[in-house]
Design a protein that fits this description.
The protein is of the alpha+beta class and 351 residues long. It has 2 domains: 199 residues, Ribosomal Protein S5, domain 2 (2-Layer Sandwich), CATH 3.30.230.10; 135 residues, GHMP kinase, C-terminal domain (Alpha-Beta Plaits, 2-Layer Sandwich), CATH 3.30.70. 40% of the residues lie in helices and 27% in strands. The chain has 11 helices and 15 strands. Strands 1, 2, 3, 4, 5, 6, 7, 10 and 11 form a 9-stranded mixed beta sheet that branches. Strand 4 and strand 5 form a beta hairpin. It starts with 8 loop residues before the first strand and ends with a strand.
Length: 351
């Protein structure tokens, strides 16, 4: 689109995320490895001769919901129930200033209203259960991209310039929780190293190149997990048992750093070993904290991974959602995937 000030349609998208290494350790200033996924959240704004602005969020709602702006520029739903059904939409509009003016359009002297569609269907399994791919972060990034294109129509978005501002915005939506690694993956795309510095106040992200010869499959365990609740369990462990907590975090940090070194060296086998070791470390951490990071499903699949000679670990907070298996031996990986499917688990392929 050449100039969003005069166009009557705007489309943006933002990918989800999948963590390779660094879960939990990233919250305490240690590096993580994350990649964006092919599944995208799509946001489209069309200006039409309608009576009011509206927003359709698929698959959350089946019908478009009308909204307007107060005198102070804050979004107001026509149906107040939408504040609970779509908890991130109003805060995102309110925190990104200027939406009333940016959505203002006219055609032949008559006002147009924005018809916004947000489609996050790709982040759900059979449109009902979240896969744990960072849909809220993708929503934040997609709406930010739309806001940016409308506000700065001739300027190219620089992810590095906006990363920390967008992480700060997203944290406000999540009551201060989260590292921002999902925001980085959605904003930059590709494979990244991510690092929190200055006691979590500043984040950096650097593109990486995946080593040739290491293949990955992704598995849906069938149980959506709450990252926020898992982090709360871990924080309780830190307060009650600070020394064991630190020992586990340091162990995971060392493995994550070794994985980064393997990526830098292009060493596929060493990265496979780091992935397997990180899975074991997550299991030990969860058991020490009495947090359900590693479930019976994870144990079952980890045993299968050992039998077939592949690496296995949860991706993200654990407790359900998705997991990954990686191997330089594609035959072994295919056999692992076959046995996973036979046991009733959903193989998501390359995401």
């Amino acid at each position: 689109m050449s100039d969003t000030r005069y166009a009557h349609e705007l489309t943006v998208s933002a990918p989800g995320k999948a963590l390779i290494l660094g879960e939990y350790a990233v919250l305490y200033g240690h590096p993580a490895v994350v990649r964006s996924v092919q599944r995208q959240l799509h946001c489209q704004i069309r200006w039409q001769a309608a009576a009011e602005h509206s927003l359709l969020a698929t698959p959350v709602l089946s019908a478009a919901q009308a909204f307007a702006f107060d005198a102070d520029g804050k979004l107001r739903w026509q149906n107040p129930d939408n504040a609970q059904r779509l908890p991130f939409i109003k805060p995102l509009f309110d925190l990104l200033e200027g939406w009333p003016e940016l959505l203002s359009r006219q055609l032949d002297g008559k006002p147009l209203h924005a018809q916004i569609t947000v489609d996050s269907s790709a982040f759900y399994h059979q449109r009902s259960s979240k896969l744990g791919l960072g849909s809220s972060a993708a929503l934040s990034v997609a709406l930010f991209k739309a806001w940016y294109q409308l506000r700065y129509p001739s300027s190219k978005l620089d992810p590095e310039q906006w990363l920390n501002s967008l992480i700060g915005l997203h944290r406000q939506l999540q009551q201060g929780h989260g590292s921002g690694v999902d925001i980085a993956a959605s904003l930059y795309g590709g494979l990244l190293s991510f690092h929190l510095q200055a006691r979590g106040k500043r984040a950096t992200a650097q593109p990486l190149q995946w080593p040739q010869g290491l293949e990955v499959v992704w598995i849906w365990l069938g149980n959506p997990a709450s990252t926020r609740h898992m982090i709360e369990d871990i924080e309780l462990f830190r307060r009650q048992c600070p020394q064991p907590h630190r020992q586990h975090i340091d162990a995971m940090a060392a493995i994550s750093s070794a994985g980064l070194a393997a990526i830098a060296a292009g060493d596929a086998l060493a990265l496979q070993q780091s992935i397997a070791a990180y899975g074991d470390a997550m299991q030990a951490f969860g058991e020490a904290a009495e947090a359900p990071i590693y479930t019976d499903d994870h144990r079952r699949l980890a045993a299968l991974a050992r039998q077939t000679g592949v690496a296995f670990k949860p991706s993200g907070a654990g407790g359900g959602d998705i997991a990954l298996a990686a191997a330089t031996d594609t035959t072994a990986l295919a056999e692992f995937a076959r046995q996973c499917s036979a046991a009733g688990y959903q193989i998501l392929g390359q995401l």
